[in-house]
Design a protein that fits this description.
Order of helices and strands: HEHEEEEEEEHEEHEHEHEHEHEHHHHH
Strand order of the largest sheet: 9-10-12-13-14-11-15
Structural class: alpha/beta
CATH topology of the largest domain: Rossmann fold
Largest sheet: 7 strands, mixed
Distance between the termini: 57 Å
Number of domains: 3
Radius of gyration: 27 Å
CATH superfamily of the largest domain: P-loop containing nucleotide triphosphate hydrolases
Bound molecules: adenosine-5'-triphosphate, magnesium ion
């Protein structure tokens, strides 16, 4: 077994380097071999009590092929996790000591690192603190921007500056959603407390792409912030994808916050695939849900409700409420949307295209308006003619029909399910 050869090698090193100390052999955290941790945990760093980290030496272990993974941190490309062998040096009031450490990819088919370490038996607590430090350095950072903590995504990803009035949906739907949030934070939290339940409420926004779910989240976030709440935003749209790790980081932030929290998880369905599924369900079920005494409201989005549907159906209470965010419902709403995106270019003759906008998502109308206004600009005209607007509608419809999935901006294979989703069991 690979781990046995790692241990055998580490024991030989131990005999040569620390013959007078008694060693414990332990499973160690692979984070100590991570280059990010090695850069961030600096020589001289206080570990615990009088103990200090004194440096690390790379060792050559014939049983290990050193391979690194890489990724971006901010704008920089850096080496991240990797296999390798090291001697970590520490000193405390009883003198200097070393930990011999080896991590390696054990299987051919998984990229899971297994790490072992030999630690002086009376210094295990110091090593444990050091491992914890390394793990903290490695985990994806939560960036705090104003009152928003962002987990994943990029800096400019989520901006809670959307005005509530700019979200064009039925007033009734908007009111229900806002009332739900307010009722929870103002009265609901106390009710959960009386029932000795962690105050954690879960809402899902479901709808086909481009209906304004992200926009709605941003507008809700703006309101939440103005009322003294903190927003935690989780996005799967970066190299780390939709990992449970991110949810975990977010939940830690939710629990640690001393304020009520609005937790936004975009594309919840993506976390319900693969190995992380069970753990995400645990969070929804309350087994691993965050306990923030001031209250936490989860606002999750999906444009693939089928992926969530079955498991919710089997277990009521996983999500407290599902809001369907529909495409444009009627001509009145279509007109509002078109006027909104035409702004000062609006002319009453544009009403002629309104019937064609019904049952399209808001993003469609925005594209139509933008395209028509660009056509006018291209012809050095200030006004947008009806012909331009019609041309814009037709070219966009043509584009969609020819299966160019302009609305599907995520690499999730969602093309074509626009139609399917409208028939989902969530639709009233
Ligand atoms: N209901 C709406 N009111 C006003 N603008 C809208 C609406 N829906 C969509 N839009 C416009 O379309 C853009 C895209 O919408 P948004 O990103 O919120 O859709 P989404 O539902 O989150 O889509 P996806 O499921 O693909 O993530 C918005 O930034 C906005 O400009
Ligand atoms: Mg979105």
């Amino acid at each position: 077994m690979q781990y046995e050869s790692l241990v055998a090698w580490a024991r030989e090193q131990w005999e040569m380097r620390s013959p007078t100390l008694k060693a414990l052999t332990i499973w160690a955290s692979s984070d100590c071999g991570n280059r990010i941790a090695q850069q961030q945990v600096k020589v001289g760093r206080r570990i615990r009590g009088k103990a200090r980290f004194e440096g690390v030496e790379r060792l050559d272990c014939p049983a290990i092929t050193p391979i690194s993974d890489y990724g971006t941190r901010g704008k920089r490309m850096m080496l991240t996790s990797g296999s390798g062998a090291y001697a970590f040096r520490f000193a405390d009031d009883r003198g200097a000591f070393e930990v011999i450490y080896a991590s390696s990819y054990i299987g051919d088919d998984t990229q899971d690192l297994t790490a072992i370490a030999l630690v002086p038996e009376d210094r295990l607590d110091i090593w444990a603190s050091f491992e914890f430090m390394c793990a903290r350095a490695v985990r994806p950072r939560i960036k705090r921007r104003r009152d928003v903590y962002i987990v994943g995504g990029t800096d400019s990803f989520f901006d809670p500056t959307v005005e509530w009035e700019d979200v064009i949906l039925s007033d009734e739907l908007k009111a229900r959603l806002l009332d739900d949030m307010e009722a929870f934070f103002t009265r609901g939290v106390e009710i959960y407390r009386q029932l000795k339940l962690p105050p954690f409420r879960k809402l899902l926004l479901a709808g086909v792409p481009g209906t304004g779910k992200t926009m709605l989240c941003a507008a809700m976030a703006k309101i939440a912030i103005s009322r003294g709440r903190v927003v935690v935003y989780v996005s799967g749209a970066d190299r780390d994808g939709a990992s449970f790790e991110k949810i975990q980081r977010a939940l830690q932030a939710v629990t640690a916050a001393r304020y009520p929290v609005l937790l936004i998880v975009e594309e919840l369905d993506a976390y319900l695939q693969g190995d992380d599924k069970a753990r995400v369900l645990n969070v929804l079920d309350g087994v691993e849900s965050p306990n923030n005494p001031k209250g936490a409201l989860l606002l999750a989005t999906t444009n693939y409700p089928e992926a969530i549907d079955e498991r919710i159906a089997k277990r009521p209470g996983r999500l407290d409420r599902v809001f369907i965010i529909p495409t444009i419902q009627d001509e009145q709403q279509a007109e509002r949307m078109l006027r909104h995106y035409m702004r000062e270019s609006w002319r009453d003759e544009h009403l002629a295209v309104v019937p064609r906008l019904v049952e399209q998502p808001g993003a469609f109308v925005r594209e139509v308006a933008l395209h028509a206004r660009m056509l006018a600009a291209h012809e050095h005209r200030l006004d947008v003619t009806l012909a331009m607007l019609e041309e814009s509608v037709f070219s966009l419809l043509r584009q969609i029909r020819s299966e160019s999935d302009y609305l599907t901006r995520r690499p999730m294979g969602l093309a074509n399910h626009t139609k399917k989703s409208t028939r989902s069991p969530f639709n009233p």
